[in-house]
Amino acid sequence: MTHDIRSVAVLGAGTMGAAIAAHAANAGLAVDLLDLDRAAVQGGFERMLAARPAALASPRLAERIRLGTFEEDLDRSGDADWVVEAIVERLEPKQELLARVEKLVDPDAVVSSNTSGLPLHSLAEGRSEAFRRRFLGTHFFNPPRYLKLVELIPTADTDPEVLEGMRAFVERVLGKSAVVAKDTPNFIANRLGSFAGMHDVRYALEHGYSIEEVDALTGPLVGRPKTATFRLYDQVGLDVMVGVAANLHELAPEDESRDVLPAPEPLQRMLDARLLGNKTGGGFYRRGRRDGQTVFDVLDLDSLEYRPAAKPDLPIAAAARDHDDLGARLRFLLDKADEDRGARYLRDTLLPSLAYAARRVPEIADSLVEVDHAVEWGFGYRLGPFRAWDAIGVADGVARMEALGIEVPAWVKEMLAAGHDSFYRDGQVYSPLTRSSAPVPADPEALDLDRRKAEGAEVAGNGSASLVDLGDGVLCFELHAPASAIDAAVVELGARAVQELESGRWAGLMIASQARNFCVGANLGEVGMAAYQGLHDQVGQAVKDLQDVLMGLRHAPRPVVAAPHGQTLGGGAEIVLAADRVVATLETYIGLVEVGVGIVPAGGGCKELLRRIVAPAMRAAPDAPPLPFVQRVFETIGLAKVATSAVEARELGFLEEHDVVTLDADHQLAAAKQEVLDLADAYQPPAREASIYAAGRPVLAALELAVQTLQWAGQAGEHDGVVARQLARVLCGGELSLGQWVTEQHILDLEREAFLALLREPKTMERIQAFLTTGKVIRN
């Protein structure tokens, strides 16, 4: 494939088709979404708009999607660089639609099917050789915006250049991670997932394990998502899970384990009752409200009535959590299986799944890495089957399997006999095809900070942060504090980062984190404890130290680029706002949320939104009333608005037009490093000048009146008003009689004063204590 993909025609506006169209719009593509008739396409489009979690990174991106029908608008597919079929999962309708598409598409366009398991070679039957060369499977996992995996399934006729081009497009443009699967039933992830899903449910039903017990055992405890087993059924849809397994049962008659695939009787009764999961309002769980609280009731599989969920009694789970290392935890659970019922469930479901995966190689894929990645990226597991088997020990796993009568494929025993005691070792992976090890494929554009530190590139570090030499003169300020919070150690190393930039040794600095979240804000426990002890001067100095570090980064003589992802809240947002440039992943959730615990931003968050939103407006129109612009900042901070994507972050003012949003999270750090180098040659730091417009008393009076009105209407409590008035005072520059330009330090001093004043309020301390205790925001 030698051309760029800039436009896509998605054929089918069902759950997957509409979601694929949405993610293509997220990636900046022009999208046509077509279905049988207007009602079908409009209904699918509206369901996509209402989906939660949101399919679109911003509602405004819906403008990139043009709707149409197969009868009136299928010719639009002729203008598309990529046509993806996503209609009903039946062979004949797909074949008929592809026959029509073949007559319309551009000779260089790629055509793919999003089938979850139908044979690709059968879908292409009857099509020309030229069509078959540019046809393949592109199996997205639901929801496409959030799940990393896309399985690429070539046929024997697919041009290798088309396959590699689509892999590059899927990874670089759509931000997904691709694996190449063979054209076998259900491909890789759904082949293994269908077996595990049905086997594990059958085992639970036959041995009397409750829904709550199974989900408590099969989630984060063993390195899997919180959806665990039954919540995953509800999320995906019982009909989909059963249908995919039934498809495998029909299409894989030689599969020695296919007898577990048909739905057991309780699941069939749920299907008949339309208890399909989240999309029908209830499946194994049903969400509701009781006594003003959100509750999840659980289904009684005998009566099909819901009852309050019970907390399972599983002491083995608490004991297993004492083992921080996942491999050690799994080994502990396996050792306890003969004496503990919960551990036995995990042993008797984990080991069959590992053996089944091994029996499917090389049927479904030639590489163990592709199989592991399919499971890790498709289902969110920390360890795919072969990495998990390594974690428990390959030889030990074989012995346990054989003791339970589980069939172990010959190639695993041959591997052990040949002296290979693990699937992975020292950057090598074993190949069942060659009976030897080869290097694990490495992504040359993926930057791994842990690897750099292991290679001796750490310049300085402590338990919360590191300074890492990335080469080419780029220094990285890495955040890795417990719970991704800012503590004194982070600030200390931030000051060292400023000194390094001032030394002239570096081209620039990147701020990054490889934790799940970039930074969730200040360590509230440190702040709350000091305030509780009356150490307000100490807290004030800590705030001043953070302000000085962030101002040092903002005005450093070399460029600073931040690379946020995940939760980027409070002080984390303020770190990002201090940078010259931002390279954010699409899934960056950024906001100044301090008011939730009764305080205001004090690390420059107020100052930065004033500089980015109010100041440009007042420069452009000096005589314009400042109230609307200050009001926008007031609402963003006062309502603790958090962007649900980097696209929304730009709309809220946390990102600027020149900042970069990447969908390719794996390449974010490399892109941020390159951004530092691009800025370095002609870099000039921002001047320290009166760059903030402070609106003064007239606007402050208007904001205070608005707060009082909300209180009169019962929409804001007494202490909400105290916090809001302090925030308004900061945003208006204090007690200035008229609007005027002030320095950044003027606003920073006001931020610190307001922060300390609120910490002296008993109700703020109550809010902080409640949040530290329960993790929830209270209104007192």
Main attributes?
780 residues, 32 helices, globular, seven-stranded mixed beta sheet, eight-stranded mixed beta sheet, 27 strands, alpha/beta
| CA gyration radius, whole angstroms | 28 Å
Q: Biggest sheet, open or closed, and with what strands and sense? A: 8 strands, mixed
Total DSSP E strands = 27
Structural class: alpha/beta
Number of separate helices? 32
Read across the widest sheet, the strand sequence of neighbours is 3-2-1-4-5-6-7-8
Mean pLDDT: 96
Strand content: 5-15%
Distance between the termini: 61 Å
Word description of this protein:
- It is a single chain.
- This protein is α/β, with parallel strands linked by helices.
- It has 32 helices and 27 strands.
- Strands 3-2-1-4-5-6-7-8 form an eight-stranded mixed sheet, with helices on both faces. The protein has a seven-stranded mixed sheet with strand order 15-16-17-19-21-23-25, sandwiched between helices. It has a three-stranded antiparallel sheet with strand order 9-10-11.
- The mean pLDDT is 96.
